[in-house]
Write a structure and sequence with these properties.
This protein is α+β, with helices and mostly antiparallel strands. It has helices at residues 4-13, 24-38, 64-68, 73-83, 142-153, 204-228, 238-242, 248-260, and strands at residues 15-18, 54-57, 88-97, 101-104, 114-120, 131-133, 163-165, 172-176, 181-183, 190-198. Residues 265-272 have low confidence and may be disordered.
């Protein structure tokens, strides 16, 4: 569990770096499952066979370690401590990133709250694609001031004053949806695992915003699935939705996601 200082740091700066959460043996399993899924993607999609960005879900029985990660107490315990015991575990995705990632937040509506956990499978620093964040930019009005400045400044990604999250495999970075973040100098195969939690909406404004985000992300994930696989499967595998171990935490997530619209009817179209 997080210390009081870590909670304060997250609330103030919008992110935490959790060192060596995953063991070497767990990383071996993660890399094996990652390679299994990557092998079935349309990795090279351009006429000159340049690699493309790929992203996929990992909630099927062929990737059992990934499928259980959102329920791991080292992950969900942090989310529940920061966003409430009824926080919703939405996904465990993986991706192979190519080159830079522009400055952006993962949510813009102030009524949506949550966080993303990311684990990179290669050592990353300032010049090869480490996550860059602007501390405190999850809070308004600073969030909006950063947006205005980035829109008119013309700064390159690496020119923006930022904290560089240097990480080694096994480290996990947790950050707020509203935090401005980017990467610079990345390779053509920067490997990342992401786990996403929503704060359970309780007010009408929060629920409306979350339903809108669910609808938008259903479409986004459907497009990514179409671009990534020849035959896209469902974002939420039927085996995961069946919850064979009768995990009460997972069942709470499934029930709430169904209510909020994350469980769409189209293959590959149901998660953030």
């Amino acid at each position: 569990m997080l210390t009081e200082q870590q909670v304060s740091d997250f609330q103030t700066f919008g992110f935490l770096i959790l060192r060596q959460v995953l063991s070497p043996d767990e990383l071996k399993t993660i890399n094996t499952e990652f390679e299994l899924r990557l092998a079935s993607t349309k990795r090279y999609t351009s006429p000159d066979d340049r690699p493309a960005y790929m992203s996929w879900p990992n909630l099927g029985p062929e990737t059992p370690f990934f499928a259980r990660l959102p329920e791991d107490s080292r992950i969900c315990g942090v989310a529940e401590q920061l966003y409430g015991e009824d926080a919703i575990g939405l996904s465990c995705n993986a991706g192979s990133y190519v080159n830079e990632t522009r400055w952006h937040p993962d949510a813009s509506d102030p009524h949506i709250h949550g966080l993303k956990f990311v684990c990179y499978l290669q050592p990353l620093g300032a010049n090869n694609g480490a996550l860059r964040v602007i501390p405190g930019s999850h809070q308004r009005p600073f969030h909006d001031e950063v947006h205005r400045n980035l829109s008119r400044s013309g700064h390159g990604i690496g020119d923006v004053p930022a904290y560089i999250c240097q990480t080694a495999p096994g480290d996990v970075v947790a950050f707020d949806f509203h935090l401005w973040h980017a990467s610079w100098g990345g390779s053509t195969d920067r490997r990342m695992v992401s786990i996403i939690f929503d704060k359970n909406p309780h007010t009408p404004e929060q629920e409306k915003a979350t339903r809108k985000a669910a609808f938008e992300n259903v479409r986004l994930r459907a497009r990514l699935a179409h671009d990534t696989f020849d035959s896209p499967g469902p974002e939420y595998h039927p085996h995961w939705l069946a919850n064979p171990d009768r995990n009460s935490k997972r069942q709470h997530w499934i029930d709430r996601m169904r209510e909020l619209g994350y469980l769409g009817s189209s293959p590959g179209s149901e998660t953030r």
